[in-house]
Amino acid sequence: MSSAEQPEQQVPESGEGEILVDQARVTVRRSPRYLNFMILGAVVGAILALVLTVSFPANAEFAPSQVFGFLLLAGVVAGVTVGAVAAMVIDRVAGRSATTVVVDRLGAYGPSGQEAPDAPSDSPNSSDNSE
Length: 131
Prior knowledge:
This is Potassium transporter Trk. Keywords: Membrane, Transmembrane, Transmembrane helix. It comes from Cryobacterium mannosilyticum. Helix content is 40%, strand content 18%. With 131 residues, it is an alpha+beta fold. A two-stranded antiparallel ribbon has the order 1-2. The longest helix has 31 residues, at 64-94.
C-alpha cells in the first residue's frame, strides 16, 4: 500500500482500536556491528600468532612463549584494526542502498474511547509532578 492510499485517520469500528496519530518519512539502512568485526579480527590475529609461533624454528635468544606473546600482542592489535576498517568499508557500501519508508504512529484506545494507560502521551514532558 503506497503512502497515497493510506488513510489519514482510522476510526475503530468496535469499542477498542487504534487511531493514526502521525506519519513520518524515515531512512532505513543496514549497518554492520563494529564490535563483532573487531572481535573476529582479534581472534584471527591470535590464531595467526599461534600459527607463526609454531611454524618458524625456535629462536635461541627468546623462549617460544615470549615469541608467542609478542606476536599475540601485534596480531590482536592488527586484527582489531583490520576488522574495524572492514566494518567501515562495508558500512559505507551498505549505506548507499538506504531506502525511505513511511511509518505510522498509532494511538491505542480502550473500549470507552479513553486513551489506554500504556499508550504514549502526546507531550514528551508530561509528568505527574507539578512544580
